[in-house]
Amino acid sequence: MDYVKAMARPFTHPAAPDISLDNVLHALSDPVRREIVRKLMGSDRMSCIQACAAHPPSTVSFHHKILREAGLIRSEKKGVEVINTLRRTEIDQRFPGLLDAVFRAPGTSHP
Amino acid sequence: MDYVKAMARPFTHPAAPDISLDNVLHALSDPVRREIVRKLMGSDRMSCIQACAAHPPSTVSFHHKILREAGLIRSEKKGVEVINTLRRTEIDQRFPGLLDAVFRAPGTSHP
DNA sequence: TACAATAGTTCAAGATTACTGAAGTTTAAG
DNA sequence: CTTAAACTTCAGTAATCTTGAACTATTGTA
Known about the structure:
The structure is a homodimer. By secondary structure, chain A is of the alpha+beta class. The first copy, chain A, has helices at 3-8, 21-28, 31-42, 48-51, 57-70, 88-94, 98-104; strands at residues 46-47, 73-78, 81-86. A three-stranded antiparallel sheet of chain A has the order 1-3-2. In chain A, helix 2 (21-28) runs antiparallel to helix 5 (57-70). The longest helix of chain A is centred in the middle third of the chain and has 14 residues, at 57-70. Residues 1-7 of chain A have low confidence and may be disordered. Chain B binds a DNA duplex through residues 1, 3-4, 6-8, 47-49, 55-62, 64-66, 77, 79-82.
């Protein structure tokens, strides 16, 4: 596997019907990832570094990958940065009430 | 660590305020465990073997342990078997709408 | 045009966690 | 006392997580 090809490859996102509850719940079971999603619920476009500057870049990238492959966020390259958006309506259609319940719950910080 | 002491030790359950969203979401992210919970939503007392006879006993025990330590189920020994109950009202109070949303969602089988 | 800076990604390796076969325990029944 | 049923624990392997180091791609800047 080659760096050039790997970096040139655009992000892949699951189609809405392929978003699995397994992956969504797993993605949301991590507090760092919930924090990223919570921030995206407020401001709807955000680079990775805005999302969580406190962690090392490889960790941030890893968490975004999990969220992206679970179908929770959409990522696109915009110049040097990656802009992420929450796939809110798709998630709400497929799993009604789930995001609301998770982010209403205690255990997700509200600064 | 000794078998005798370990087996004699009763099950420990987290108190309601100590039930964490991390652990609950992680517990529910596995389809086998969701299946156990779903069955407990219907009939409110169930042994481990009733819950999932298809899997090896060590696996069933493992999944029940995860659910128990997450605070989703309560287990008590009744003779030779272990009876499990869903901590439904406690979970609903702490995380309103979460169980409903998860079990309304596609991805959890409804036989 | 070259050089450096920025914002990530990928890889690798150690650390943690998950799964399950084999062996053990406890209770109940014969 | 022996056997069976229903789990649990242990141990070893498999899969995931985390993060430093190296890399890429884009965007200034000299």
